Amino acid sequence: MKLITLLSLLFLSVALKAQNSDLHGVVTGNGEPLISATVLLMKTSFKTSTLGKGDFTLKNIPPWNYLMMVSAVGYITLKQKIMVGTDSIVTMDIELKERADALNEVVVTGTMKEVRRLESPVPVEVYTPAYFQKNPTPSLFDAVGQINGVRPQLNCNICNTGDIHINGMEGAYTLILIDGMPIVSSLSTVYGLSGIPNSLVERIEVVKGPASSLYGSEAMGGVINVITKNPKLAPLLSIDAFGTSWQEYNIDAAVKFGSKKVQSLWGINYFNYQHPLDNNKDGFTDVTLQNRVSVFNKWNFLRKENRVASLAARFVNEDRWGGQMGWTKEYRGSDSIYGESVYTRRWELIGQYQLPLKEKIMVQFSYNWHNQNSWYGKVPYMATQEVGFAQVFWDKSLGKRHSLLLGGTYRYTWYDDNTPGTLSADGLVNIPAKTPLPGIFIQDEWKVSDQHTLLAGYRYDHDQFHGSIHSPRLAYKFSPDARNTLRASFGTGFRVVNLFTEDHAALTGARQVVIAEALKPERSYNGNLNYVVKLPSESFLLGLDMTGFYSYFTNKITGDFDQNPDQIIYSNLNGHAISRGLAANIDLTFYFPLKVLAGVTYSSVYQLDDHGQGVQRTTQLHAPRWSGNYLASYTFHKGFVVDFTGVYTGPMRLPVQPKDYRPEYSPWFTIANIQLTKKFSNGVEVYGGIKNIFGFIPKYALIRAFDPFDKTAADPVTNPNGYTFDTEYNYAPLQGRRVFAGIRYSLSGN
Description:
Mean pLDDT: 85
Radius of gyration: 29 Å
Distance between the termini: 82 Å
CATH architecture of the largest domain: Beta Barrel
Number of domains: 2
CATH topology of the largest domain: Maltoporin, Chain A
Helix content: under 10%
Strand content: over 45%
Number of helices: 5
CATH class of the largest domain: Mainly Beta
Low-confidence stretches: 3-17
Structural class: mainly beta
């Protein structure tokens, strides 16, 4: 009996196995076969990937009604019910739709050419306004702080001027571009970014690491390229206005108009904060009071064969001040009540034109005029800077796999101020600084095969004082499939130093500036290794982006705050400097409406210097070893979205005085925010939330706030440690927890 039962089961299993089927098919996207797309039957072990022609096979599938999922990097995941019968072969072809996200966006910053982000041999990070709207800010200067490895650093606790650090490198090494042109100069990084209307921003592209071979001086640490909207594609009207419980008010609006041949986009940004607060009870404003207006206008001219022609202009006017609570404008420049007051005016002009030739030859130009009228206590800083920039390049295709970029640039900087930076050697005559900087560059990109791309570049610049400057670059991309990409780049960087246009600490008068010798250009050798992998699964898509970076400086100019508490000493590096680290970004998108982002950056920035006292290792100021960001966004039904965002920062070295009671290193801290948004079908969004929900503020800020003019600093009885008033001890905003609410409206149309 047992034998009969066993034989029956054996025959039954063979019979059932004979009824199983094989599933064959081809997965395509935009009509092209997709390689390495994932095909699986959910809640089973049947899973495979497509081959070189987009084909796949799942073998020996029992008859059943299944839910099949097909996913590929850059495409919308498809879920479809299928019925597998007793046929020996089942055939099914699948067409995936392209995903409208950053993976498929066209980027230009890495190579100065339009290329899909996935195909770029240089890693480029892309951020759209939707990303920054998850934690609304009144300026791009604040917004870019939500990017892993990018940190806005406030260099003054009173006037709140600052710069942008990338991977621990100081702000002078970050080049800010608008539509690919260096319109924001080092004198005005914080002012230039503060006044760009968010409604005009299409996206922000970030290249971390040196890019001097394409962009020249100032691009040693990285590039932030603000791409403005094409008026033809922009909404007819967009408005975004919000306020906070600190009585900060911001409005951002844009409107477009035009005809079949011309499209124009007008934008305005207005920010107002006039409510001085002193929550830390040091007698000074916690946050600078500001009244800023920025007007932007961009014109696009529609030409034959879609040739490019555009012209844009921007005007920024700002009045900001911070200081003792009793300060008013009548005390501007006096030594009665301390205040730091900055009046800023800027004009900018940006244009580009594609020549009417068969070859793609682009002409680009920009001009900016910046006037700054400032008083830091009783010390004036009056400066005017004009920067003219022109560039022409030829984008030549040498076949399907080979392209050449050849161009020339000329940048002319005129700068004048009331500091020793523009005085003659005898100190008797004022001589404005005039800095012409011509250059040429060439870039050769060769797609050796579908998996291998090689890019070689070289730039030559000529400085009137330092002579010839050479900047080569080599980049390589290896993509064995659509899920994995490895990029490596090597090159050199350079920067022509102008202390008085970029270092706020050199301007405030809190310390005496000492230039120990004639300063030479900064030079560095750099390497980057980047790996990106996309891992689709049954319930989520995981993206991992990892980068290792290393820069070796043969000369680097940094202010020495340590030798003398009353001085900042500048000199050439007698040794070398290192900037190295690792960064990782995780992007987790679930197939239900949850998205999670997280990033971490480790950096070590230091220099080894010998000025007659032996080799000394100095850790760079305001450069945390650990930093990162996080974001979780969940979309409920009926248009409700909850966003939890934040950044965290590890200890960083700060400028302290001898016997200073303030710690030399800042503590770990995080600034977290939460926001609830309701989206309506008519284009209206209402949002609100809490910023800095944990209420973190620095424990220490100003020293000797009761004597900002150091009138009694020399008294050994009342000041036995010899402390002097100083404003540079800064590592986080002094704003605590605050509520915000706002409304957005967008009207689409042509």
